[in-house]
Design a protein that fits this description.
The chain is mainly alpha-helical. The protein is 54% helix and 5% strand.
Length: 85
């Protein structure tokens, strides 16, 4: 007899909710990864929007530099590859 935290699927199989949760997380991560190429495709954006993105990224890089100068060991500067697309 399975432990009480297990359930049975409609087919009668034993289902562990923890394992099902991990599977659902992996499925969500896969879906997110599959959408990223379209999300990051800036070729459809107007020149004005691309300029705005560039200014925001420049500001973020400035903050990143200030944080690094303050001695914070781990920072993540934005990459320029997305802005040049």
């Amino acid at each position: 007899m399975p432990p009480p935290y297990h359930k049975r699927s409609p087919a009668g199989d034993v289902v562990n909710p923890e394992v099902e949760g991990v599977i659902e997380s992996f499925e969500l991560a896969f879906k997110m990864q599959m959408e990223m190429p379209d999300v990051l495709d800036l070729s459809k954006e107007s020149a004005a929007t691309k300029a705005l993105y560039a200014s925001v990224m420049a500001a973020a890089a400035g903050v990143d530099a200030a944080v690094a100068e303050a001695g914070v060991g781990l920072t993540a500067a934005p990459t320029t590859s997305a802005a040049s697309a």
